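Troubleshooting entry. The earlier prediction with zinc ion gave an output that would not parse, so I re-checked the input for stray whitespace and re-submitted. Clean input:
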Amino acid sequence: MHGSSRVLVLNYDFSPISVCTVQRAFLLVFLEKAEMLADARGGLLHTVNSAWPMPAVIRLRRYINMPYKGVLLTRQNIFKRDNYTCQYCGTHKELTLDHVVPRSKNGKSSWSNLVTACKRCNARKGDYTPEAAGLRLRRRPARPSYLDFLRHNSGLFQEEWGPYLQSNRAIA
Ligand SMILES: [Zn+2]
């Protein structure tokens, strides 16, 4: 099987809505429910009588109403967003989750208030804000974009998708 066996699916308005298998994408194109916008360079799908270019990006032929639900807020997804790196000291070891504004001070469990932290930094921080504990966040935590989501999901991201993801129109 070709290494790039995933296809980016765009809505009729060109906003990215999902990722599917080559087989499914090919079927959608075959049934004229989608058109192929980009093919995976060099990839061919072989049928009994012919070979077809392997799809890399397809666009639905009619608009479907499918609001982007966003990346689920889970421990694993926060680790992924932070590249499995403590957001205070940069280590990759003994990772846990830290509430930037502690729960005791009404800090919420949200994308902008949860970061990956090692046990040491977490213990040092205790029940304080980073400033009060003398710690500095490496970057401001935020909800991952659709592009981040694609990049972080099992190495799905493919070069051919780049031009179709620049605008990030799907992210409201
Ligand atoms: Zn640390």
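This one parsed fine. The longest strand covers residues 34-46.
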